[in-house]
Amino acid sequence: VGSGYWLMGQLRGHYDHATTANAVALLAVRHPEAAEHVIEAAGSADEVVPELRKPIAGYKITDQMAGRLGMNDLERVAVERMRRSGMGRLVMHPVRGDKSTRARTFIAPAAEAGNVRMPEGLAGLEALLDELAGFPEAAHDDQVDAMSQALQRLAVGEASLSAPRGKIVPAPGTPSTSPRPTIGRAGARIGRATGRRLGRPT
After folding, report:
1. pLDDT tens digits, one per residue of 157-201
2. How far apart (Å, rounded) are the C-alpha atoms in residues 16 and 65?
3. Per the count of CB atoms within 10 A, which of 54, 104, 144, 176 is most buried?
């Protein structure tokens, strides 16, 4: 949106392959404006992506799975429908360089320019900000790495959004509706984290 990048939703957890596949499908259901679904070409992707692409007749989401991913009844039906027909628009994203280099290259400049934005009340926002602030010494860094790869892909124009009206905040300079950028403490923490921890001067 203009020169800004918005995190519109996320799921966080230690998932097995089946849960990971359904988490990807759930995010696709929650964000139909996404033109493509990009998955890091590493780890379990070689198993998860073919599983998502494959139609599975009569596929059912268990109560345990729905509860673990926080699906409501409508989302559950939509994910089941998607798994039965097979999921399209899946793109494997090759990984280059180490995590620190990717974060320093793609997150730091965008965040310092005020172009990384998150809706207030976003689920898991505090955990994400803590991970950013603690990088690279923190125990977890998967969200930082996912953000760097998303910003990399968006910055070079390889991914896009075809957003319905009102889904994405207007470009800077136009009246803002919901969601609004997180300013003040949250915005400052992003700036400080990417400045101090990722090797950029504060």
Report:
1. 544 333 333 232 333 333 333 333 332 333 444 544 444 333 333
2. 11
3. 144
CA distances from 124 to 11, 13, 120 (A): 8, 10, 11
In order, the DSSP letters of 69-113 are HT--HHHHHHHHHHHHH----EEEE---S-HHHHIIIIIHHHHHT
Q: How many CB atoms lie within 10 A of CB 88?
A: 11
- What's 5's DSSP letter? E
pTM for the predicted model, two decimal places? 0.75
Minimal CA–CA distance to 150: which of 1, 31, 5?
Answer: 5
At residue 58, the 3 state secondary structure works out as coil
Provide the CA 25 distance to its chain's centre, in angstroms: 13
Residue 40: strand, helix, or coil: strand
Q: Which two tokens stand for residue 126?
A: 């505090």
Q: How far apart are CA 202 and CA 196, in angstroms?
A: 6
Nearest C-alpha neighbor of 14 from the set 95, 68, 79, 91? 68
What is the spatial distance between Cα 85 and Cα 107, in angstroms, rounded to a whole number?
Answer: 36
What is the pLDDT at residue 156? Answer: 65
Phi and psi, residue 20, nearest 5°: -60, -45
Among the ranges given (71-75, 83-87, 138-142, 192-196), the one the predictor scored with the smallest mean pLDDT: 192-196
Neighbours of 71 (CB within 10 A): 23
Q: Name which of 46, 24, 184 is nearest 120 in CA terms.
A: 184
